Amino acid sequence: MLKLSASSIGTHEKCPKQYQYRYIIKPDVPPTDWSFLEFGKCAHRVLELFHEHLLYNVEDPSRYPDIMKVAFKKALKEFNMGILKPELPALKEVIQDYLNAIKENGLPPVIHNELSFELMVGNYMVRGFIDRIDKIADGEYHVVDYKTNKNPKYLTNFQLLLYAMVVKSKYPDAEIIHGSYILLKHKSRTKDWTFTEKDYQDTIDKINRVGKDITLGTSWEKRPSILCNWCDYYTICQGSWTGEDEKE
Fold first, then answer.
1. 96 pairs with which residues across the strands?
2. Rounded to an integer, what is the distance from CA 120 to the centroid of its chain?
3. Is it the case that residue 242 has pLDDT exceeding 60?
């Protein structure tokens, strides 16, 4: 059975060749320490620890900064400080912005934090983790994903729709589901949607289409773009800018 994720589907959509390298060929290439990836993982971990504490403990809002400080220090111990150290000022800034947003809007009604899932869609198993699920009211839910992209222009609702489908399968009462990216590098502003039945059907169709393309595996097309500069397989994907075939 083919197992997919929002990330692997996005990789195939962006560049089938990169999908082939990452999930099929798995060539032995030296790992690249991208500081922006370490930044994003650490920011996610800080917020996970913060909300994990508040899921099980009722705290006065005046205590939130102290709880976040503890979460921040604990998260840092789990990461490579040699890579992360230059990013620390920016990391502290985005976490403070997140706290400021909570101070302004109140603590979100979180019911799940870093929830793992497996969801069958047609013949394909889709797996992953949901950063946050909030319950707004009876029958109304909110899926949230933290993003550290500098430019949110290219974010689509696909990932959030996939998470909303998980909520629908988990909570039969779910009638209204909202989805938001929290843009951590943009003072925790949000990019928001409220999903329709057509949205869900379009998501199912996309998963089935990509799953079929991968299963057939007849063409692993390169799609060169500026993103090639940040691809782990750039050094072995010869001719990615010229359209020439690499020598495998």
1. none
2. 19
3. no
Residue 19 is classified by DSSP as H
Pairing of strands 140-147, 124-137: antiparallel
Smallest Cα–Cα separation from 169: which of 202, 205, 207, 126?
A: 126
Rounded to the nearest angstrom, the gap between the alpha carbon of residue 3 and the centroid of all alpha carbons in its chain is: 17
* Gap between the Cα atoms of 149 and 185, Å rounded: 7
Distance CA 21, CA 82 (A): 28
Residue with tokens 């302004």: 104
- In three-state secondary structure terms, 11 is helix
Report the SS3 class of residue 32.
Answer: coil
Length, in residues, of the chain: 248
Looking from the CA of 62 toward its CB, the CA atoms found within 13 Å total 0
Buried b / exposed e along 153-183 (16+ C-beta atoms within 10 A): eeeebbbbbbbbbbbbeeeeebeebbbbbbb
- Averaged pLDDT, 66-70: 98
Instruction: Name 158's Cβ contacts closer than 8 Å, sequence gap at least 6.
Output: 6, 9, 10, 203, 206
Rounded CA separation 72/30 (Å)? 30
Average pLDDT over residues 55-69: 97
> 144, exposed or middle or buried, with CB in 10 Å at 0-12, 13-18, 19+?
buried
* Dihedral of the alpha carbons of 200, 206, 212, 215, in degrees to the nearest 10: -100
pTM (two decimals): 0.90
The pLDDT score that the predictor gives to residue 240 is 45
